[in-house]
Design a protein that fits this description.
Layout (H helix, E strand, L loop, with lengths): L1 E6 L5 H12 L3 E3 H11 L2 H12 L5 H12 L8 E4 L5 H9 L6 E6 L2 H9 L1 E4 L5 E3 L18 E2 L6 H15 L1 H7 L4 E5 L4 H13 L1
Parallel strand pairs: 1-3, 1-4, 2-3, 4-8
Antiparallel strand pairs: 5-6, 5-7
The structure holds BIS(adenosine)-5'-pentaphosphate (AP5).
């Protein structure tokens, strides 16, 4: 299964990717996580990406295209993969096609903007492993620690309300056109994001079987 998860920031792509990759035993590849790791490690790429991420803008296409080509060439992607948060522009989607990378399905998770703002204001992420929680919808056993690795739970800098609004505007302008791009190729399936994570997962698997 070679899958793309599409959707607004906070739609639940990362949450669903974690569950699907465990069930299907294929890697989930999040360009957001790769970039945040590069920022944390102070690499050249991280230094270039930081200002874009912190202000809610997209990192330039050429940086993303090179990350994704390199990552998809790794052996663990041979049996399939889930792309979470990439492609995010038509230029990125065309680069994936031109590189001969086949995609089986594109699952678009639809969530209204007002719900997105609620979700992102309650999100907490693990500073060590990147696992994602929500203070109400998906709480960790200890509100300060990650259930998976015991790392510290923090608020992402780009989850500040003004940055969330900018990320939503960027999504509608630059990423939403991908729905038409993949619908035209017969790959797009749309799932309405539900209030419960498990209900969205059930709809995603139903869409994958169709
Ligand atoms: P990235 O990390 O990809 O962020 P994003 O797309 O904005 O997505 P999020 O991680 O915010 O949300 P999500 O959909 O994964 O939701 P989650 O599952 O966490 O990108 C960050 C930045 O990096 C970008 O702004 C850009 O600068 C750069 N970047 C990355 N990729 C790029 C690319 N390809 N091109 C250019 N730049 C790029 O869920 C959100 C919250 O809701 C969580 O708290 C979760 O617990 C909760 N939740 C999830 N599902 C439910 C549910 N069903 N009900 C209730 N709560 C739920």
């Amino acid at each position: 299964m070679r899958l793309i998860l599409l959707g607004a920031p906070g739609a639940g792509k990362g949450t669903q990717a974690e569950i699907i990759c465990e069930k299907l035993s294929i890697p989930a590849i999040s360009t957001g996580n790769i970039l945040r790791k590069a920022v944390k490690n102070g690499t050249e790429m991280g230094k270039k990406a930081k200002a874009f991420i912190d202000s809610g803008k997209l990192v330039p296409d050429e940086v993303i295209i090179s990350i994704i080509k390199e990552r998809l060439a790794e052996p663990d992607c041979a049996r399939g993969f889930i792309l979470d948060g990439v492609p995010r522009t038509v230029v990125q989607a065309e680069a994936i096609e031109k590189a001969g990378i086949e995609i089986d399905k594109v699952v678009d998770i639809e969530v209204p903007d007002d719900e997105i703002v609620k979700r992102l204001s309650g999100r907490r992420v693990c500073a060590s492993c990147g696992a994602s929680y929500h203070t109400v919808y998906k709480p960790s056993a200890d509100p300060t620690k990650c259930d998976r690795c015991g790392g510290e739970l923090i608020v992402r800098k780009d989850d500040e309300p003004s940055t969330v609004l900018e990320r939503l505007a960027v999504y509608h302008e630059q990423t939403e056109p991908l729905k038409d791009f993949y619908a035209a190729r017969g790959k797009l399936v749309v799932v309405e994001g539900q209030e419960q994570v498990a209900d969205t997962t059930a709809l995603v698997f139903k869409a994958l079987e169709a």
